[in-house]
Amino acid sequence: MAIFKPSLLTLALTTAGLTMGGISLPTHAQEAQAQEQAQSNLAESKQAEPKQADPTASQQDSETSTSVSAETTQTNAAQEDEEGNKMIITGFRGSLLRSVDEKRVADTVSEHLSADDLGALPDISIADALTRLPGIAAVRTGGQAAEINIRGLSGVFVHTTLNGREQVSTSGTRSVEFDQYPSELISSAAIYKSQKASLIEGGVAGTVELRTASPLSMRNQHTFNASVRGMFNDRSDEVYDSKSSGDRFSFSYQGKFADDTLGFSVGYARLFQPNVATQFIGLAYNATQDVDGIANDTGGPDNCPECEYISEGFEMQHRGGEETRNGYVGVIEWAPNDTFRLKADAFISDFDSEAFARGFRVKFDGSTADILNPVVFNNAVIGGTINRNNNNTRVEIVNDDNTDYDRVENYGVNAEWILTDQFTLTGDISYSTASSNFRNGLLWSLVSEDTSADPLVLDENVSIAYQLNGLNLPNIGFNQNFTDLNRVALSKYGIYPFENDDTLKAIRFDGKYDLIDNDIFSSFEFGMRYSERQYSADRSVFEYGQDNLFLTSEPPLRLTNDMVTVVDWSGDFAYFPSYLAIDYDAALNAWFPNGVPQPAQTWGVNSQGEIDYSTSWSILESGDVWEDVTAAYFMANIDAEWGDVPITGNFGVRVIESQQYATFIEDVGGSLEQGAQNITDETGLVSSRYASRVVGTTYTDTLPQLNLNFKITDDSQIRFAAARVMSRPDINRLAANASSNIADDGEFSASSRNSPFLMPFMADQYDISYEHYFDKSDGAFVVALFYKDIKSFVQNFDLFEFDFAGNGFNVPTYVPGTEPGNEDSLPPVLVTNGTYSTAVNNAEGGYFRGLELSYTEIYSGLPGIWSGLGVSASYAYTDSSVSLITDLAGTSYEQTFPGLSEHVLNASVFLNYDQFETRVAIRNRSDFVSEQVAVNTQQAFFDSETVIDYQASYDINDNSRVVFQVNNLTDQPTKSYFGTQAQTGTIQYFGRQYFLGLSYQL
């Protein structure tokens, strides 16, 4: 056996330390091949009869950097019966044990999900499946897991690939929406918690790799899977006009032809499901007033120490709608000989959502509100009676209509050549695109004194009594009738589309040189990748009417009986007042008999038809971002011994050059010297005030890495990993959509919450873990420690008395219209420097560190029915030195980093006996910080939550299985708050989802 010399180990560790850590991985294509090979080898060992080897097996063995050693070819998922015959273990148990096998042979700190065949993953969604893994937590959107957090870090730090290729997202960020990926079309997944040089950069938290099936690697010659499931939501009867039932359907086929040299795979998955929620949402505390007259109260803001903080208001809403997702996958694979393989694959997913939100939006107008009997807690008003007193205090009857049309497309071609016995070359070309068209429509009503009057006059007699009740529903009372057609009229219609397109083209080449009779290294790997990414955002708007009064210039609509339905609340919300649900189409057709106007990108126009820039944000917030990346890497794979301890792993370095730039419309005040142009909006208005620019930057990063795996016994190993890693800011944060304003008193201010000059998040990370695999490979126990030293974060800062002119802004000397010498001008007003609100890289950074425990075991030694009993459980503890300050509660509070739960627990208990299998899965996370969506997105503290799912299945015969599932078994709500739990945020109930279906495999 080769001896691993201490000097080389010292050199490798020193390299990692001097460069602050850096992990080198095989290429994505090679990683995918490695997993396919592992699956193929595992499948081979499951066959009861000998079978002809895959003609490409030797090729895969030579090309993959993660191979299955002789000691691990006996798979978890294949066990012997009393006569010594191999038995294939399927279902959740088989999937779990194959995942344990893959973790055991991996060359990084990683977690794995695996399925026998396309469509065999047992979970409803990929996000649900991923949350079974240690250190992974889900963020529920609409009651479903959509985004995942890894080791306390949110989606911006999570990098996602499909078949080794970087994914763009429909979210407008870098965070992939995993509900876009049907679990039926994904055959396996992995989360890399440590890095390697061959892995595409981008995952400070980790990299999620999704894989579709490889038809030439499957164990059977042909397979066909089909499933159909009906579903039901038990809260749908609480939401008027919502659907209660839905369905899922999928089928897939995989086949090998031409003496196993040609493989073909195709799959389709359709989802149609209702989406319901009943919710109360308290809004942020954004106003102050001295409500109790206590002069010695010093808890208020600096400019008003006797004041209390007052919320913007609250919402009470029924939410409903339906989601339709159609997913398609296709793979063709050709291996005409032992030295060449060509694989082409395509993945397409369309996700359409139609949703409504109906109920109330209460606005306090807190700074001028007339508040009686205030209830104050921790200097915040959490109750009282608010009366309208010639201000904007009001109750809006809300009938919002939202549609979202998302599409993801991924195409790729991969070719592998074994050029010599030692050298393998891989080439890959890919195209990934995502588009999203979200149309946020609102239809708001107000209460008038009498709808027969002309013009309509707002009912000034408004009284709102409320008392927040922490994380329980509040006490609320009103003095108005919100269902009386003699009083209620439509006051505002608006539609605000968000359209995003994100496209990435990439090409990469990877080489691997196998070493013969080398005492230390098994192979060298190297490669390069070039990608071009373009992101575009388009905003547009149409507004008619106003939300706080009835306009005479844009008259309101008087409602009729055929346009409305009286809606009552039920269940826990039954004491909320009834309201009018409005037929959207009927109302708009009556309001706009010549056709409903469509939104546009426009400067805005006043009543005289002149530009007033009232909606110029629709142009200023639209634009393009480009990101070109060139990367190269080198990695050495280790296969040696140090004394009697076998050591495997790798070390290497990845170098990346990034160019990022964005379009920018700068306000130059019409100066031709500064490039002012005539810019025409979509309505034909021409502005000569702005100049078009393109701004950006170029930078280079070096990412070293090290992975070492010490096999201390046949069943135990220790892993150590060190790396420098990076995550880029969300792609939409690289936009250059700045805006500026000159106040009447001359103060010049500007806002640029995004910036094309933002740098990546850089981190040094270290992992050490101990893994013990139980006898006969029926489980494992793992303990892991990790430490991430993140160098900086992107944060929004306010820079006061900023030198705008000195930093390139176009700043006039006087407020426009007050220039000296103009006979019609007002008295001259000099322009002064004000506040610049912008996004910057905060250099402070901080650490994330934690402990992860996982335990999986099949108790096969138990008698009878209990021999199929198993447990898979994990616990993660994470803490961080990073804290942020939030002012949304009024008083400033320190909050944890978004996505960080100190405790995360995942557990599944399952039983498999003959044809029957049952499983209970529990996901628990402690409190964390995330975003709640109301009028605007607001960051809030979320309470801890425990989500329980149940699944049972029965094999009717060798081909057919009936499945029953319940998601969110205990109807766990989402609850959030601002600062203290007394300042209620979201209380949202989604209901339980029941599934019953049949699957067929041939």
From TrEMBL:
Stretch list, region Disordered: 29-85
Domain of life: Bacteria
Location of this chain's protein in the cell: Cell outer membrane
A Pfam family hit: Plug
Extent of Low complexity compositional bias: 29-39, 62-75
Residue ranges occupied by any TonB-dependent receptor plug domain in the UniProt entry: 110-206
Chief place where the protein resides: membrane
GO CC field: cell outer membrane
Signal sequence extent: 1-29
Domain spans labelled TonB-dependent receptor-like beta-barrel: 476-969
Keyword terms, alphabetized: Cell outer membrane, Membrane, Receptor, Signal, TonB box
Similarity-based family: Belongs to the TonB-dependent receptor family.
Protein name: TonB-dependent receptor
Origin species: Aliikangiella marina
Taxon lineage: Bacteria, Pseudomonadati, Pseudomonadota, Gammaproteobacteria, Oceanospirillales
